Structures are given as C-alpha cells and as structure tokens.
Amino acid sequence: MRSSLGRFNWIMFAAMLALAAIGTVFIWSAGNARAETMFHDMWKSNLVTVGVGLAVYLAIAFSDYRKFLEWCAVPVYVAAIAMLVAVLIFGSKVYGGRRWLWFFQPSEISKLCVICLLASLFGSDGRRSFRWFVIAAFLVMLPVGLILLEPDLGTALTLVPTVVLMLFVARVWRRGLVMILAVGIVSAFALLGAVYEAEKPGVTAARRERILKWVPLKSHQLSRVKVFLFPEQDLTGAGYTLRQAKISIGSGGFSGRGIGKGEANHLKYLPQSISMNDFIFCVYAEETGFAGSLVLLSLFAALLVSGAWTAVVARDSSGRLLAIGVSTLVFAHVWINIAMSIGLVPITGLPLPFISSGRTFLVTVMAGFGLIQSVSIHGREIKQ
Amino acid sequence: MKRDESMASELSCWAAMALFVIGLSTLAVRLKEVQVDGAADYNYEKSRQSVRRVQTAGSRGRIIDRRGRVLADNRRSLSIVCNASAFRKRTWEATELAIAGAVSNVAEIVGRPSSLSISAIRRHVHQSLAMPLVAWRNLSEQELARFAEQEYKNLGFSVLETEDRTYPYGSLACHLVGYVGRDHARGEEGDERFNFREMELCGRSGLELYYDGFLRGVAGEKRLLVDARGFTEREWIVSEPRRGPDLELAIDADIQRVAEAQLAGVRGACVVLDPRDGSVLAFASSPGFNPNEFVPVLSREVYSRHLNDPAKPLLNRASGGTYAPGSTFKPVTAIAGLEMGYPADLEYECTGVFVLGGMKLHCARRWGHGPISLRGAIKESCNTFFCNLGMDVGTNVLMSTARAFGLGSKTGLDFPEDRAGLVPDDAWKRKTYGERWYPGDLAQMSIGQGMLLASPMQMALVAGAIGTGYMVTPHLKSDLPSTRRRLPFSKRSLDVVREGMRLVVSGGSGAKGGEGVDAEVCGKTGTAEYGSGENRRKNTWFVAYAPATAPRAAVALVVENGESGGSTAAPKVAAILRRIFNAQ
Questions:
Q1: Nearest CA in chain B to A128
Q2: What CATH number should be reported for the domain holding residue B510?
Q3: How far is B238 from chain A (nearest CA, A)?
Q4: Domain check: are B208 and B272 in the same one?
Q5: How many CB atoms lie within 10 A of CB A71?
C-alpha cells in the first residue's frame, strides 16, 4: 500500500478534484439563473455525484487494472451493448433523442467500455494485422451505430479519435489507419465545402438542391454546419445559440464578471436548457474571464499530460492503451466543447468533462481516470 | 512487447501528449482573441440586446406673474403601475392573463375599475414590456390609502408619482397662459438612441406653447436591464432629469383680474401695457375657459363643447382677434394731416353727414357739429371732419402713417397669435376683390371703418405710442429686452393729438374713461359698425393712456356688440385704470 501511494499520481488527482469543484460552483451559478427552483439545488446533487465518482475512482485506482480487464472487459462490453439496445426500446425521449435509461445515459458508459475492450484486446502482442483491424472496427462500430441511432452524434464522434489513437499506439494496421484518417479528413472538408457551395449567398435553389442531394446530413445537422460557416446569417434562429455563446464568453473580458454575476446567463440570453450542460463553458468564461479560461485549460492540461505520461511510462500495452484511450476521449470532449462554443467547429451536443452537469458522464470520466491511476500505480510492477 | 515496438508505441504516446498540449494551446489563443481582444465588441453587443435606454421627463417650469403669483403650476399625480416582470409566465398569453387577473384583484382593493383592457395589456406586453404599465391614474387620497393598506396583496404593483399641470387661478389669463397636453419627452439630437421615452407635459396653446422649449425640463436618462424575453431585471439612473426654469411674466394678476371682471358677460378683449418698455400688464379675452378642465387630458367631449360654443371661448381676442378700430383710428388720421402741414386750428364744417358721390357717412351728431377744429373733432369724434381731412391727406400718406403705428404688421409679441390686422390699399383691393380703390374707401378708412382691421394689442400700442412718442415691441416675458423706436412725427403733431385725446376724457365722448382715476387720462372712443339691417352690430372701443404727461399705462378695450365706445367701453377702462393708479 505504501508503494501504491508512492506511485499515486497526485497531480492528476488534484487537477481532477479542482475541476470537479469548479464544475459544482458553475452548476450552482447556471442553475440559480433558471426560473425552475428544481435547478437551484442541482449543485448539491452534483456534489453527491462527485462523491460517488470519487468512490468509484478510488476503488478502481487501487485495484489492478489487468485483473479488471481480464475479468470485466468482455462482460462490461456486452452489458453496454445490451443497454444501448435497451435505451432504443425503453429509453425516455428528451430533446428529440432517446438517450436516457432510468437515471443514466448508456452511451456515456459505453465509451469507456469500448476503451476497456480495445485495451484488453490489444494488450497482448501480435495482434497487428488487418484482420485484427477489422475485428476492432466491428467491435467499435457496433456501439457507435447504436449510439447514432439514438441519435447522439457528438458522443459517437468523440470515439473516433479515441479509437484511432488507441489503434495507433497498438500499432494495428498503421498504413491503413493513416489512409483512413486521410480519407476522413478530406471527406470532412469536402462536406464543409459542399455545404458552403450550396448555402453561400446567390446560389439558385435548383443548384442548392443538386449539391445537398450528395450531403449526408440531417436537417438540424445541416443548419448547424450552416451556422458554423455563416455565423452572421441567422442570428435569431439557428445562429442564436452560437451568437449568445460568443457574446457570453467574449463579454467576460480578462477577469470576468465575478462568480454568479454573469448577465448572459442570469438574464437568460444563453438558452437555459443548455447552460448547465453543453454550454456551461460560456457561463464559466463570462464569470471568470480569460484568466479563468486559462486556469481551466491548465487544469485540463495537467490532467491530460499526466494521462499521456502514464501511457508513456506504462510497461504493458493494455495499461498504455487504457491511459491513452481515456485521455484522448476526455481531450476530444474538452476540445470540441470549447471549440464549438467559440465557433471553431460546428455545434455538437457534448458535455464538458467535470464541469457540465450530468451524472453518468461525470462518474464515467472519474472511473476512466481511476483506470489511469491504476495504471500509474500498478503498471510498472512488470519491470522486475 | 518487443523493444523497438515498445519504442514506437511510446513515441505515439508522446505524440498524443503533444496533440493534447497543442490542442489546448490553440483554444487558449483563440479564447484570448475572443475574451481579451473582442471583449469591447461583445460587451457592446451584450448591452445592445440587454440594456434599454429610457428618456425620463424633467418637470415643467411654472408660469408666474410679475409679483410671483403662480399662474401655472405642477401638482403631484399618483398612479398605480403594474410591473410586468412580476407576472412572467411561460407564454405571452398566460402573462397577459396573469396581469389582467391581478389588475382586477387590485381593482377591488382600490375601489375603482381599471381602464386597462386586455388589448391594452397585450399592446404593452408586446411593445413596452420593460416599462411600467399604468393601471390607474389620478389616485385620490382614499384610493391611495386603500392601496397602501393592503400592500402585501399588491405584489407587482406600485405607486408611481408623475406631474400634472394645474392652474391655481382657474380661468384667469387662460388665453394668455394656454394649456398643455402630453407628449414624449424631447431630448437633444439623436433621440433614436432611446428605446423608450417617458411622456411629459407639452404646451398646446398660449404661452405654454410659445415658451414650450423654455419651460420644459431637461430630459434625464434611465437604463433598464432586460432579460432575454424583455422583462426588466434591474434599473439605474444615468442622469437625473432637471426641472425647467420658471417663466416670469410682465403680467400683473391684479390688473388682469380687474380687466377680466370688466369683460365678464360680454365678448371682447382688453390689453394693458406699459408703453415705456412694452411690458404687457394685462391680456384679457372674454369669454374664457378653465384650463384645469383640460387636465390631465383634453377630452374629446370638453374640446367639442368649447369648439361648438357660439361665443368661441377658445378664441384669443386680445391678439388673435381683429376688429375695425372705428374712431380710435382718428388720432392716426389727425397725425397724418398735421404731418402734411395742415395747421392745428384747421376747421371743417360739419353738417351731420359726409357726402361723396352716392355715399353718405353720418356723423354721431345727426345735426352736425358746425365748424369744428381738429382738437374738437377728436374730442367729439366728428366723422365729417376726419372724412374731409382724410380725403385731403390722400390714401398713401394715411396708410404710411397707419403703418408707422405698426398697423397691418405683426407686433412682435412673444405669443403664438399675433395677428397683423389689415391696412388696405389699392393693390390689396385689386388682388382681393378685383376692384380699384375708390375715394369712398379712403373716406371709410379715415374714420377707421371699411376694410381696416386691428387687434386690441395693436390699438393699445397705438395709444401708448401717441402718449410716449415711441413705438415699442410688446412682450409678455418680463426680462425680454425692450426695443423701441421713435415715431417719425413731429412733437407738434403729437401734442395736438394728445391734447385732443385729453379733451375726450375731460369732457368729450369718452368722459367716463377717466372717472375716478387718480391720473390724467387721455383716450379715444370708437364705435365700429358692421353688418347691415337686422344684423347690424357695433363693436365698441376705448383706447387710453395715462398719466397724460408721462404715460405709464396704455389700454385698449373692445366689447363686441356694445352700445357705444363712450358708454360701454370707457367705464370699463376707467375701472382698470383705477386699479393701476389709485392707492389700494
């Protein structure tokens, strides 16, 4: 136990706790701004969730992740698939998607399950051929497909860089991986270009129709891409959220308005349904300013660099893959969430890890970092 | 794990770490652009959508007479207003219904139904949600007490203090003071930067209108912080409105009161002024109205009642009404003759009628005055004498003399109505009637009849100018600089006419014009006939100045449809002069 504590990554742990504390404070701030009194006490329930997450974190951190992967990776994966199917059948509909099963969101948990399965699968050497790539692709596409059916594009999207990086680290069919990555990037730009060509001012309706026929986007996704490309065009309609998000973040200035004093949030210009969740960064940035943004980014950097460092020093593949997988997943969430709030990428519904309110995701992410901590503690014993 | 493979995979982990750091740094750079470089722009955008600028009204200055008596004042008016943000509901309809329900609840407490209809509430919610909605105006003390007693029940309602105009002396000097309506507060240029402008009092007639810009307060500014739906969250004051200055008049309310008392029951007007500097001391027109009836708003019913009254109470006869001056014009004709070189002892034979071609003009004395001199002709108001004199003087000289006295042009009075009257001539007659100027027109004009028209204000100025030898610009505001110009006539001519006018009062046609006045009064009567047959009416005049040697007051008084200048108008002028000159 002594040696366990010695290898415990305190920086990662402290950064995580600090982020969870910040999250609780801004869930209080965002919740207080809402008219419905039920949200005023949301921060308390977040605190309880942090407690639960911490328990899960510590339990996982001090148990050996190898045993966990050996015993649990496959059953947990199967359970995740089962839940994803169940949510499509029994899930309650919120904001046009079936994402909730009873009190949690299976899609959030399933991301960690996929990481665990891949870590377990590629923990052993010699699984680098194309065949294994196909197997991995199938095992990933199954939950991703189910998540897309909910639909929850954002969650599915974050899995792509996670899996790609994990396969890279596992050195599975790298040549093909590079090709697929290149094709993915090119087609993303082609998609943006096509939407731009179709929606730029002065395009005839017929031509627009002709181009959009080839664009595989649903109408709400298309409108988000349009807002991303032409943010000034529809300020009261589809562009309203992005505009309010930018106003909120931008008006924070260097030092912010003070905690609990954000006007965009309290005067409800920021859409209330998302201010506690996907757009909580706007509340944070307005109230703490650029200084606060830097603090937040530094904390995430401490967390993610620690995670990557754990991967670097890990002496076995499964531990390394776990650390890289979880870090990349969290990085994807952080980056896309903040980038969409300032218009760098189209708006995608994604929570900001530790800050957004959302019990399932918070516990999942803390469990993920528990795994990294476990890798940090137990991952070097192989040396002797 | 093989060694080289392990190395390669370790390298991938370093790459991942680099990706994280670069990714987060990119965000930091971009956030710096948005939050630090863009802060001013985004703050402006934010205030544009969440801050409403309200122009607040400053209170209106009072109107006071030369002794500080308040003719127009402000009084506190209490309203109950509804703050819509206390009734916010999910939908606008629900909000409107919530307000309507609350208003009817408060109506029971106040004891008076509100004038607000659901459509008025809807309009407010859609157009000026951020502003308070006035539900009851002009609260009485009892209503206020009832409201305040149950304040805890009246959540979302509060008492708002505004100002209404009040005229403490009622109808006194009503035409002069005028009345007010309500308008949006007026600010400096660039008003469009305000989202809302409070209503404030604005002049609609009289001095309230003429000095509207002077009396109005300086607008202040209030800002409202509104939420995404437009409900007011918080408000703060940027600049306090300032009160407008008081308008001090040259008017003396005591003289004004006497003048109005003299005109009570008749239609007519009276102007009293100080001929030395043009200060107007009284400015009366009869019948009048009570401007308090027009507060807080001039209702359609009250307005049409005044408009349809045959006595035309809204008409200001003192400077906005013109009459044939009749015999009060004769001193002007006399001066024209004297200036042409006719001697002061010039005589004409009065036979009681002046005949010119087919036209006969009778003298007041049917059997004639016999041979009569100029002074005597003024004293007795002999028509024949002045017709003859006028015919000898000629149209051009007579008219230029009349114009030298300011007739036919605006007086320059600081008042909305300043009628020029009419000094007719050949060109005017051709243009208006398509007829040439006949000698008969000249004869008519010589005795102030025919097409000649003048306002009581103008005739008061003429009387004063004869007394002092100076034409002044009349003014109502006390501190306006007085401008005066010397009459282009010799002292000899003026002295002859002054002597004639003194004789009028000391024993002539206007003897009643100086009765009991502790000053020597010079005056001239006038009885101008108009209409014919059954509709024959007489407008009776008396113009005067006093004291004879150093005039301090000039008066012109006209009574429509009177008996004669000497019997109808002169005693009224005497009463006014007694108020001025006799020790009280």
A1: B5
A2: 3.40.710.10
A3: 19
A4: no
A5: 11
